[in-house]
Amino acid sequence: MSDIGDWFKSIPFITRYWFAGSILVPLIGKLGLISPVYLVLWPDAFINKFQIWRPFTSTLYFPVGPGTGFLYLVNLYFLYQYSTRLETGAFDGKPADYIFMLIFNWICIVITGLIMDMQLLMIPLIMSVLYVWAQLNRDMIVSFWFGTRFKACYLPWVILGFNYIIGGSIVNELIGNLVGHLYFFLMFKYPMDLGGREFLATPQFLYRFFPSRRGGVSGFGVPPPSRRPAANEQGGAGGGRHNWGQGFRLGDD
Fold it and tell me: Of 20-34, 83-97, 218-232, where does mean pLDDT reach its minimum?
């Protein structure tokens, strides 16, 4: 048990609580401590009955059973693996920025879920994080099951197809990929690569609650190289930029 406890404590702070919640909430529903009816996202209950907890619980809840257990475990692994790599890599020492990414993706997914009457939001949020990681490491070679190897930028779409085979749907994965792409485009691609304005910025109150720190584990992934003219960089306009760390080749694990 001490080994499990040590492993759990070694998980990065934000990923640790997200991972724990994604186990605890499905367990509560499975044991019948709270009916799953109250854990999923129902637009009518959320909007008209003011059951404001539903967007939160529907992000953590998954109906675990004989037909869904394997899909749940696979996505729980993806949560642990890629959230950990982002938190200790591109967002290392920047917990406020990582929390802002999760909040932005979560809000987009909740709005989409309300519009499309989606009851479960766990997989879309996990896939959105995986998509961001894949874009920050797009040229890295990753290994998937059965010895297949390809660039990381294709990983979200390979997983989409894989989950379709074992789960029978691609809606959750597709929404997660699209939301992840929206965040990546607005935060990195448009302002840093295409020279556009910044539409996303971490609110200052998050920095007060989760201050940035120096040091830590060096990371997985870098944003696209900026194509802005050198004059822009020399003019001091980049004061708000972050040093996003160095890439890591997964094939060397």
Answer: 218-232
Query: How far is residue 61's CA from residue 26's CA, in Å, rounded to a whole number?
Result: 5
Q: What CA–CA distance (Å, rounded) separates 29 from 49?
A: 21
Do the Cβ atoms of 59 and 79 come closer than 8 Å? no
Distance CA 22, CA 62 (A): 8
Convert 2-26 to b/e letters by CB count within 10 Å (16 or more is b).
eeeeeeeeebbebbbebbebbeebb
- Collapsed DSSP state (helix, strand, coil) of residue 85: helix
CB of 150 within 8 A of CB of 144?
Answer: yes
Query: Are 191 and 197 a contacting pair, CB within 8 Å?
Result: yes
Beta strand extents in the chain (DSSP E only)? 141-143, 149-151
Task: Report pTM.
Answer: 0.83
